[in-house]
Write a structure and sequence with these properties.
This protein is α+β, with helices and mostly antiparallel strands. It has 16 helices and 15 strands. The protein starts with a strand and ends with a strand.
């Protein structure tokens, strides 16, 4: 069933990424294990990232992911690229320490425009400490109300930038949900402190996590995903070089873990990936998986990534979910005609998603004409 690869090709790269990303080969049983394996999983699409985790496990439901969040097994915050991610509680502090100082520094112009400075952030910290201490959890609107009462405007996205900044400093993080609303808590109360890492230790660990879970990938891919400089990426690779191998493919150098193995390809292998799935978002160059003629259908304005249908490693369509009278509806948009066997495989993938949502026998599947 498995074999070692002696020579890498573009097709092998995609095949190996799916294997390492736990899509075609599930090594874990719990949501926390998947998140820890990746290092970080992009999570501004909250429902999408929950499916991204469940897709890589067997028999996991939306409720299981919510329970993992409530149990503090996975944590949502802004560790890189000013973008929300799920991270492991064991990783959150060293990741923030390594990655966010540069982000905060680059936000200086934005902060000046919004009249956000150290004095104001310090005042917000005191307000949040008083409101959240004792393991309290407040929604965004409840926190905004506290700020407004203290004469701190939350308009023009100021409130969101305040929350993001204090999370990047390791002061607050997302907690469990209150109804449909996310809440915030003090990080030191929500996640117990652990022994800190030096910056070099953190860099080496993040580098190993990325190329182990996302490889084969290039230096530019890792720099894009992490927000690190190219110089730091090269230094990180040098630290763990004995754990990695590399190969040139089409004049590009790809790094990956040693002794890579892949599954035998099955012709009707089809997956429904959520928006911002790591299979696409984690690489600066996505041309191996996405044909240029389909780019506009997948990557929208303002950095939006649409949910996609993966057919034998490549993107061959998009999909979206909706609920009609409490019944799940999946709309499939294919870029080309599929064989009956592949359409059956699409239906099977939809059924797995419906089980994840808690509606295993109550869904409509609509396949539209090719785009």
């Amino acid at each position: 069933m498995f074999k070692y690869i002696d020579h890498m090709t573009g097709s092998n790269i995609l095949q190996q990424r799916l294997y390492n990303q736990q899509v075609t080969h599930q090594s874990f049983q719990r949501p926390a294990e998947v998140v820890e394996w990746f290092g970080a999983m992009q999570a501004q699409d909250y429902h999408g990232v929950k499916w991204a985790i469940a897709l890589r496990l067997k028999g996991i439901t939306d409720a299981d992911i919510e329970q993992a969040i409530a149990d503090k097994k996975i944590v949502r915050t802004w560790p890189m690229r000013r973008t929300l991610h799920f991270v492991s509680p064991e990783d959150i502090r060293w990741m923030l320490q390594l990655l966010t100082p540069r982000i905060i520094s680059r936000s200086a112009t934005l902060y000046r425009q919004l009249e956000l400075d150290k004095k104001l952030f310090s005042k917000c910290k005191k307000l949040f400490a008083n409101a959240l201490q004792g393991e309290k959890q407040l929604t965004r609107n409840e926190i905004y109300e506290i700020l407004e009462q203290a004469k701190i405007s939350t308009k023009a996205m100021r409130g969101l930038h305040i929350l993001c900044h204090l999370a990047q400093e390791g002061f607050i993080c997302f907690a469990a949900r209150k109804g449909k609303q996310p809440t915030f808590a003090l990080l030191d109360e929500w996640v117990l402190p652990i022994k800190p890492l030096t910056n070099d230790e953190a860099l080496a660990l993040l580098t190993k996590k990325y190329f182990t879970s996302h490889g084969p990938a290039t230096i530019n891919d890792f720099a894009w995903w992490s927000g690190l400089t190219i110089a730091d990426v090269k230094r990180g690779i040098e630290m763990i070089k004995s754990d990695l191998q590399n190969e040139m493919v089409n004049s590009q150098q790809y790094w990956m873990r040693n002794n890579i193995v892949v599954e035998k390809i099955r012709p009707q292998r089809i997956f429904l990936l959520p928006s911002f799935d790591e299979y696409l978002v984690a690489y600066k160059d996505r041309s191996l998986a996405v044909h240029t003629t389909h780019t506009r259908n997948i990557f929208g304005a303002n950095g939006i990534f649409n949910p996609v249908i993966l057919v034998n490693n490549k993107v061959e369509g998009t999909w979206k979910r909706s609920f009609k009278k409490n019944k799940l509806q999946i709309e499939i948009n294919l870029f080309s005609e599929l064989t009956k066997a592949k359409k059956d495989a699409v239906a099977k993938a939809v059924k797995k998603y419906s089980k994840f949502t808690g509606a295993p026998n109550s869904f409509n599947l609509i396949m539209l004409n090719k785009q």
